[in-house]
Amino acid sequence: MSAIAFCTLCENKGVSGIFRCEGCSQTFCLQHTNEHRQYLTHQLKEIMLENEAIFKCFNDNEQSSLLFDQINQWEKDSIVKIQQTAQNARLQIQQFSQVQKEQTKEKFSQINKQLEEALQTQKYLERDLYRWKILLEQLQYDLCMISPLIIFHQDHSQGLINNIFILKKDQQSILNEKLISSSTEIYFDDKHHVAMHCGPCRAPAHVTGTQEYSSGQHQIRLFISKSTDEFILSFNIMSKLMPMSTVSSDSQYLTYGWQSNDCINPFHCSLASDKHFQDLRGKTKFHIKLFMDCDQQKISYFNEKTKQTREINVDIQKCPLPWKLLFYLYDIGDSVRLLSSCPLS
Which residues contact residue 90 at a Cβ distance below 8 angstroms, ignoring those fewer than 6 apart? Predict the structure, then answer.
């Protein structure tokens, strides 16, 4: 005869449970089953409020991006001679921005439909809530940043007044990297360019890239988001020869990279000056450019917000080429997004 499962919230009172939630693995009595469903519905409605707030951004035509600030400053310095060129550049950015908004709006519509269906059918679990919240955060990033693929360029060969160009790279040509994982906690979006830790509980999860880097210099641009600053997240490289089963245990190989508390992997690579170094610690959002120099056997990163750079020399005996990207996520709601990847030589 199987043991009686008591209500998680009434356990001290010995009340038998009648329903086990597959999302959080807790058992509830009739009263607390209804209260648990009401609690989940309340969380869903809070996410829908965030959803509605983002919808209002689609009609926002304010020209407040960094790109426009650069153009306006250039126009002010160059006065009348370049007014027409500046206007042409603005029109180009508006066109690119509109394309970006339309693409983001399409993704938004898909999420909006999923949220409405979930509210009507009540067919959703905690991990669905985490996934929707992360995806909305990614959409908000796209709306605020316009696009990581738009580049402001000045031609310094034109004498006193520099001509300007607005360039838009082809996304497929600069984003040939993808993310994969065997961890059941990890979900993917945007053609495996976004990896999300969706639970159902906090647990170590590893995400790797599909590309191999064996020569030359390479740049990977990342947007990393943490649910809170309480737990560690890290971005690293690993050797293709290193089995995933040994990443978190003793191995003849080592991983190299940085943790969100500013510690270095592996620890013995830390210098005395690293002890009080602060860049990522206490933050939950990072815009990172990760550089891999296979020829010089070193890696570095540039924090686009703080403008700080760090570098590690890689022991090629402990981390043989070719290298691959490796991310460690632990907290529910943590995510990594690939913005671009391209060779530098």
Answer: 63, 68, 71
Task: Please answer whether residues 308 and 226 qualify as being in contact, where contact means their C-beta atoms are separated by less than 8 angstroms.
Answer: no
Which residue is it, tokens 């059918």?
A: 121
92 by Cβ neighbours in 10 Å (0-12 / 13-18 / 19+) ranks as middle
Task: Give the integer Cα–Cα distance in Å for 149 and 167.
Answer: 8
Which residue, 30, 37, 29, is CA-closest to 12? 29
- For 98, residues 6+ apart whose C-beta sits below 8 A from its C-beta are none
Q: 143 burial class (0-12, 13-18, 19+ CB within 10 angstroms)?
A: middle
Would you call 286 helix, strand, or coil by DSSP?
strand
pLDDT at 64 (0 to 100): 59
Domains of the chain listed by start with CATH number: 61-168 (no CATH), 172-343 (2.60.120.920)
Q: How does strand 150-155 pair with strand 256-259?
A: unpaired
Tell me how far apart the 2 most distant CA atoms of the chain are, in Å: 89
Q: How far apart are CA 255 and CA 268, in angstroms?
A: 12
Q: What is the DSSP string of 184-250?
A: TTEEEETTTTEEEE--SS---EEEEES--B-SSEEEEEEEEE-S-SSS--EEEEEETTS-GGGTTS-
What distance in Å separates the CA atoms of residue 319 and residue 241, rounded to the nearest whole number? Answer: 8
- At 266 the three-state DSSP class reads coil
DSSP state of 16: B
Neighbour count for residue 120 (Cβ, 10 Å):
8
pLDDT in tens, 68-89: 777 777 777 766 666 787 788 7
d(CA 132, CA 139): 11
Mean pLDDT of the residues in the chain: 84
Cβ-based neighbours of 151, under 8 Å, separated by 6 or more: 166, 167, 168, 169
Residue 274 has a pLDDT of 62
Q: How far is CA 110 from CA 7, 197, 307, in A?
A: 37, 20, 36
